[in-house]
Specification:
13 helices, 5-stranded parallel β-sheet, 5-stranded mixed barrel, single chain
Length: 375
């Protein structure tokens, strides 16, 4: 398995910062408990050099042990806070900070009459007031981040930072001709991010020697150009320095989606599983089509146009209107024709349904009898 050097360096850096924090907390605890040992020794019994040294040594030892425990808990809490802040987009953090400051202003005014109460009642009441106002201000500011930045003419969604409205497009999803219809109908909306590597793969498909692949690639590039000009959707070309150092395109897409708090749009089943394992939202066009398409049942008659031969001898392959692949036995002679088949089996795969069938009129599948032409 290939290792990602950037990920390894990131984990090593976090471990190094965590160990430094633990040692710093331990040093502070050792100093505090050593001073406490000195103070306790001077206040009980006769003060001698040996007793002072023993008190300082015992205090420092207790501080060393407790400091290590407390330091590790502090490092774990700091790591969780850092991970949470990495998940939250920067505009939302800034908007939450603005909301916090604004909410503390009325809290300061309301606390003035509360301070006239007895201290045992005033200080807890003021602390609760500041906490409630600050909490509400921060969360209200985060929820209204778009409106807040729009007051100054800044569109945060264009930067690709609002979770749930940001989509990272994979090559397989762009090559799928149905994605444009889904965007037009509103099933996929918000900010669309396309990395330069995906654009390079699309260009390679458009330059393919295979006419079918070349046509799909050109249509996908034309669709991207049309979407960039469409005022109802934001399509942005992303050249992220972090992902550009990653050799694997799939890993770069997952990392981009995770860093931006975005959902990954792909038809690649393996890539979808990797993204889900890393807590990245996945939206599959195949999954949506499977959920919306009417079920094909065994024994049903279906019309399909055969476009090529199958893997096994005599098989013909075609596709239904929704993209479902159909394999017809003993139908290779009818490539290019529209035939009526009877469904014999339906398999559910990671890429969608796979339908098997046989010709409804089996006489059409039989080769002509020798001498019939002469007759």
């Amino acid at each position: 398995m290939d290792e990602n050097p950037d990920t390894d360096r990131g984990h090593t850096g976090r471990r190094h910062r965590g160990s430094l924090l633990v040692e710093l907390v331990r040093l502070i605890m050792v100093g505090l408990f050593a001073m406490a040992g000195w103070t306790v020794t001077t206040r009980i019994g006769k003060v001698t050099t040996g007793r002072l040294a023993l008190g300082v040594f015992l205090g420092a030892g207790i501080g060393f042990v407790l400091g290590g425990v407390f330091g590790r808990h502090t490092a774990s809490a700091a790591t969780r806070v850092e991970r949470e802040f990495r998940r939250i987009p920067a505009p939302e953090i800034l908007a939450g900070a603005v909301g916090l400051v604004v909410a503390l202003m009325p809290a300061a005014l309301l606390s003035i009459p509360i301070f006239h109460l007895p201290p045992t009642a005033s200080f807890p009441s003021v602390a609760l007031l500041y906490y409630v106002c600050g909490y509400l201000g921060y969360h209200i500011g985060r929820s209204k981040s778009d409106e807040l930045f729009a007051m100054f003419g800044v569109k945060t969604r264009a930067a690709g930072t609002r979770e749930g409205e940001v989509l990272v497009l994979d090559t397989s999803a762009i090559l799928d001709g149905r994605i444009e219809s889904l965007i037009r109908m509103g099933f996929l909306s918000g900010t669309m991010l396309v990395s330069r590597r995906v654009l390079g793969e699309l260009q390679a498909v458009a330059d393919s020697s295979d006419p079918t692949r070349r046509t799909r690639g050109k249509k996908a590039l034309d669709m991207l150009v049309a979407l960039r000009r469409d005022p109802t959707v934001d399509v942005h070309l992303v050249d992220d320095e972090k992902t550009s150092r990653t050799t694997d395109v799939d890993a770069a897409l997952v990392r981009l989606a995770k860093d931006r708090g975005a959902a990954l749009v792909t038809n690649d089943a393996n890539l979808a599983k990797v993204a889900q394992a890393l807590d990245v939202q996945v939206r599959s066009i195949h999954a949506l089509a499977d959920a919306m398409r009417p079920p094909v049942t065994v024994g049903e008659r279906v019309n399909v146009r055969l476009i090529r031969e199958g893997r096994e001898s005599g098989q013909g392959v075609g596709y239904l209107d929704d993209g479902t692949m159909v394999v017809v036995e003993r139908a290779s002679r009818h490539i290019g024709d529209t035939v009526t088949l009877v469904v014999t089996n339906v398999l559910q795969t990671s890429n969608g349904q796979l339908v098997f069938g046989k010709l409804a009129d089996m006489r059409a599948a039989e080769p002509p009898v020798a001498g019939s032409a002469a007759s």
